[in-house]
Amino acid sequence: MAAVSQSGGSKVASPRKSLFDDRRILVLFLLAPVLCFFIVFNTIPTLWLLGLSFHNFSLTSGMPPEFIGFRNFVQIFYNKNNIWADLSRTFIFVGSAVSIQTALGILLGFLFWGSKNMPGRRIALTMLFTPMVLTPVATGTFWRFIYDPTFGVLNAILRGLGADHPIDFLGDPTFAYWAVVAVDCWMWTPFMTLMTLAALGSVPKAELEAAEVDRLPWWQRVRLVIWHHGKFIIMLGVLLRTIDSFKTLDLIIPMTKGGPGQQTRLVAVELNKQAFESFNMGFSSAYAVLLLLISIAMTSVFIYVLNLRRRKDSAAGGET
Amino acid sequence: MADIIIDHVTKRFGTFTAVDDLDIRFSDGDVTCLLGPSGCGKTTLMRMIAGLETPSSGRILFGERDVTQLPPRKRNIGMVFQYPVMYPTLSVAENIAQPLKHDRSLSRGERERRVEEVLDLLDMRKQARAFIDDLDAGSRQKVAVGRSVARQTDIVLFDEPTTNVEVNAKLQLIRTFKAVTQRLKQTIVYVTHDQTEAMTLADRIALMKDGSIVQYDAPRRLYNDPSTEFGGWFLGNPGMNFIAAERRGNQLHATILDSPLDVASDLGGGEIVLGIRPENVLMHSEPGPGSVEGRVTEQTIGIAGRNLARIAVGSAVIKVKADGPAPVAADGTVQLSFPRDRILVFRNGARVTL
């Protein structure tokens, strides 16, 4: 209706003035449901969280929230379990898990891409993607069983191979951290495979054929043809994985609960503990606000980098 | 020597036969156009020559060398695709140099010399440093041509290279192709569905239909002496006129003939059709020897300012292409004559000589 009146046909179409003749009102009306949802479930809780982070409020004390300014934030840094150790552990976790997932995912993606006529390819692909659709809590739970020192299948295999002592993968400080990283990779490598397949699918067939006819070596094909078309999808995959693994919690809780010691205590695990085990709502809110800021910072860097590349390409007149 | 020998090649996709038992030789140094309507198998044939498809049966040879099972990179060919394929992050000169870079037999100096030579040939010296993204489709396709010929392979394949280029750039591009193909003595196979392009570029045209080559001839001959009704219909703008004829004894009768046409007695049975090109039909205002009367149904100005008229003669409608307009307006009557030496006779779709 708006389009009709805009194009000057209102005389013919509808002589009555409608509220929606104003385009801005129409747009607002159409956006309203989503906006309401967003405000109720996103904006208000975030503001609530922000407010709470300046209060001393414990669910167990029964006292009303007390305004204490920045004291929660100060405490995060001057606590004996200060945030730095958790943060660096988390960054190493994100860095190692995401790079392993990306490398393996790209490798698998290329393998599946290059084996289009392989029998059973579809079944193999479906099986490959199952870890990704499982609930992380379930994944963590059954991996705890796999890693179990007495009746776990992994130790059974090691025994079969001649190991003397069972290894407590999740209880031993030498292994726990990497055992958790391994499970995260098991779960999320398929996602990067999927992204790689999507990226490879976006490469025009003729360009690959031309590279073949031109006798370009494989690394030149990857650099000049595949990477050029696929980079945004791959980078998007890395971005999504980075943000997501920064928040890893549900995989770790059933496996180690952050232990042994603090070996696998990532920021989200600590946050969960402060909020839902110690009920320090004020302190945990401050902690959450800090994590939110870090997440925003990381995302901004990624988006900046992606945009920068895109701008460079379009400055050169590209259609990417 | 790099004749391209297609030895009883068939290609099936599922139950569809794209190329049907083709057996032909494209000579060394020739520009051969594969011409035909969509789906006639011309692109499939070219992709098999390139090695991008494998024949279901039969062999492909380059001279003595059997290449049927070789991948494209081992066939030593150049190819220009329908969609201008570029390496987007590189400059024009770098694009042209790219396939040369990986040929260890070439010295650095030789590589540079060849790139220069190709840039001159394409008249693109000024744009050598420009990035591919700055070029229009026509120029990109020129660069793609440069890249394919710079390696100086024995064989260069063109897969409908002007399809994605706008009309003005198209003519210029075809001129460039012509210059390039005349300079380089490479064996060239050029796929197109555009007859003007084929006529301009080809030494020989392979006219294709339903996976087979209908006729393989020089452009002029293909146009003047089509071996099939299909050839007469497909070439020319508009295509040939076809008029049903009736055989009585050793004579053919048709509405366009004022007196019967004598034919050999061993012509055989079947459907007889007379064909004549629109430009060979003569139009007069007054009756003359051998002329028949017709009624003008439509007049238009056609290609290159020539006049196109549709004239009803009995139950047949004859297309006439003439330098001037018909002497009368629509619905008027005119006299048409059909020079006997220009009339071709087809029996069951195939040409018969009298």
UniProtKB/TrEMBL annotation, chain A:
<feature type="transmembrane region" description="Helical">
    <location>
        <begin position="286"/>
        <end position="306"/>
    </location>
</feature>
<protein>
    <submittedName>
        <fullName>Sugar ABC transporter permease</fullName>
    </submittedName>
</protein>
<dbReference type="InterPro" id="IPR035906">
    <property type="entry name" value="MetI-like_sf"/>
</dbReference>
<keyword id="KW-0472">Membrane</keyword>
<keyword id="KW-0812">Transmembrane</keyword>
<dbReference type="GO" id="GO:0055085">
    <property type="term" value="P:transmembrane transport"/>
</dbReference>
<keyword id="KW-1133">Transmembrane helix</keyword>
<keyword id="KW-0813">Transport</keyword>
<feature type="transmembrane region" description="Helical">
    <location>
        <begin position="91"/>
        <end position="113"/>
    </location>
</feature>
<feature type="transmembrane region" description="Helical">
    <location>
        <begin position="25"/>
        <end position="50"/>
    </location>
</feature>
<feature type="transmembrane region" description="Helical">
    <location>
        <begin position="224"/>
        <end position="243"/>
    </location>
</feature>
<dbReference type="Pfam" id="PF00528">
    <property type="entry name" value="BPD_transp_1"/>
</dbReference>
<dbReference type="InterPro" id="IPR000515">
    <property type="entry name" value="MetI-like"/>
</dbReference>
<feature type="transmembrane region" description="Helical">
    <location>
        <begin position="125"/>
        <end position="146"/>
    </location>
</feature>
<feature type="domain" description="ABC transmembrane type-1">
    <location>
        <begin position="87"/>
        <end position="302"/>
    </location>
</feature>
<keyword id="KW-1003">Cell membrane</keyword>
<dbReference type="GO" id="GO:0005886">
    <property type="term" value="C:plasma membrane"/>
</dbReference>
<feature type="transmembrane region" description="Helical">
    <location>
        <begin position="175"/>
        <end position="203"/>
    </location>
</feature>
<comment type="similarity">
    <text>Belongs to the binding-protein-dependent transport system permease family.</text>
</comment>
From TrEMBL, chain B:
<comment type="similarity">
    <text>Belongs to the ABC transporter superfamily.</text>
</comment>
<dbReference type="Pfam" id="PF17912">
    <property type="entry name" value="OB_MalK"/>
</dbReference>
<dbReference type="GO" id="GO:0016887">
    <property type="term" value="F:ATP hydrolysis activity"/>
</dbReference>
<dbReference type="InterPro" id="IPR008995">
    <property type="entry name" value="Mo/tungstate-bd_C_term_dom"/>
</dbReference>
<dbReference type="InterPro" id="IPR003593">
    <property type="entry name" value="AAA+_ATPase"/>
</dbReference>
<dbReference type="InterPro" id="IPR027417">
    <property type="entry name" value="P-loop_NTPase"/>
</dbReference>
<dbReference type="InterPro" id="IPR012340">
    <property type="entry name" value="NA-bd_OB-fold"/>
</dbReference>
<dbReference type="GO" id="GO:0005524">
    <property type="term" value="F:ATP binding"/>
</dbReference>
<dbReference type="InterPro" id="IPR040582">
    <property type="entry name" value="OB_MalK-like"/>
</dbReference>
<keyword id="KW-1003">Cell membrane</keyword>
<dbReference type="Pfam" id="PF00005">
    <property type="entry name" value="ABC_tran"/>
</dbReference>
<dbReference type="InterPro" id="IPR003439">
    <property type="entry name" value="ABC_transporter-like_ATP-bd"/>
</dbReference>
<protein>
    <submittedName>
        <fullName>ABC transporter ATP-binding protein</fullName>
    </submittedName>
</protein>
<keyword id="KW-0813">Transport</keyword>
<dbReference type="GO" id="GO:0055052">
    <property type="term" value="C:ATP-binding cassette (ABC) transporter complex, substrate-binding subunit-containing"/>
</dbReference>
<feature type="domain" description="ABC transporter">
    <location>
        <begin position="4"/>
        <end position="235"/>
    </location>
</feature>
<dbReference type="InterPro" id="IPR015853">
    <property type="entry name" value="ABC_transpr_FbpC"/>
</dbReference>
<dbReference type="GO" id="GO:0015408">
    <property type="term" value="F:ABC-type ferric iron transporter activity"/>
</dbReference>
<dbReference type="InterPro" id="IPR047641">
    <property type="entry name" value="ABC_transpr_MalK/UgpC-like"/>
</dbReference>
<keyword id="KW-0547">Nucleotide-binding</keyword>
<keyword id="KW-0472">Membrane</keyword>
<keyword id="KW-0067">ATP-binding</keyword>
